[in-house]
């Protein structure tokens, strides 16, 4: 990050990224959050189809939903800052029509004490990355719309990538 992100009581932080897995294995991707050299936690997803597992910090795994290979997925994280802890929510492929209700989160960690009041670094970690995986559009913002409204150029690139993948499969 060009400058650390600093948040306080009553603030929100949104982080999102798109991923697409092309190989049937348990590869995955985590986005780690750091404050200087201190690891705060991660969010991510590994596996495909019924092997999905969502992760939010240590030991917060839960079975995920079924997503076919070569299908783009959007992972969205929301951190709500309290006095001494944060409430953290994660969605996979939420409806982009409006900000989702926290009750609809695929995973939540209420009262997380990871102290993410200052985030100075984001780090990607590929897990068992023996196949093809595409990552795009890592976004950080203060609101839902900051991280979920794609730019027209991005939409065109995603569409072209999908067409190329279909073309490659047919050959």
Short structural summary:
The protein is mainly beta and 171 residues long.
Span from first to last CA? 41 Å
- Would you tell me the structural class of the helices and strands? mainly beta
Strand order of the largest sheet: 9-8-7-2-12
What's the order of the H and E elements? EEEEEEEEEEEEHH
Low-confidence stretches: none
Helix content: 10-25%
Shape: globular
Rg, alpha carbons: 16 Å
DSSP strand count: 12
Q: What fraction strand?
A: 35-45%
**Mean residue pLDDT:** 78
Biggest beta sheet attributes: 5 strands, antiparallel
Number of helices: 2
Itemize the secondary structure elements and their pairings:
Layout: E1 5-6, E2 12-21, E3 28-35, E4 38-46, E5 53-56, E6 62-63, E7 73-81, E8 86-92, E9 107-112, E10 118-119, E11 121-127, E12 133-141, H1 144-148, H2 152-170
Antiparallel strand pairs: 1-10, 2-7, 2-12, 3-4, 3-11, 4-5, 5-6, 7-8, 8-9
What do you see in this structure?
- The chain has helices spanning 144-148, 152-170; strands at residues 5-6, 12-21, 28-35, 38-46, 53-56, 62-63, 73-81, 86-92, 107-112, 118-119, 121-127, 133-141.
- It has 171 residues and is mainly β.
State the main characteristics.
five-stranded antiparallel β-sheet, 14% helix, 44% strand, mainly beta, 171 residues
């Amino acid at each position: 990050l060009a400058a650390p992100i600093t948040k306080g009581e009553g603030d929100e932080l949104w982080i999102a990224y798109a991923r697409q897995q092309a190989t049937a294995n348990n590869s995955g991707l985590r986005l780690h959050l750091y404050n200087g050299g201190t690891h705060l936690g991660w969010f991510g997803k590994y596996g495909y189809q019924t092997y999905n597992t969502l992760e939010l910090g240590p030991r917060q795994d839960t079975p995920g939903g079924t997503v076919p290979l070569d299908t783009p997925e959007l992972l969205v994280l929301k951190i709500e800052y309290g006095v001494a802890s944060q409430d953290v929510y994660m969605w996979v492929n939420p409806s982009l029509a409006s900000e989702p209700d926290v009750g609809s989160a695929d995973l939540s960690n209420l009262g997380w004490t990871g102290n993410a009041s200052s985030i100075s670094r984001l780090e990607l970690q590929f897990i068992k990355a023996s196949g093809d995986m595409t990552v795009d559009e890592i976004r950080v913002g203060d609101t839902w719309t900051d991280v979920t409204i794609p730019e027209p150029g991005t939409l065109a690139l995603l569409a072209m990538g999908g067409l190329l993948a279909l073309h490659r499969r047919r050959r």
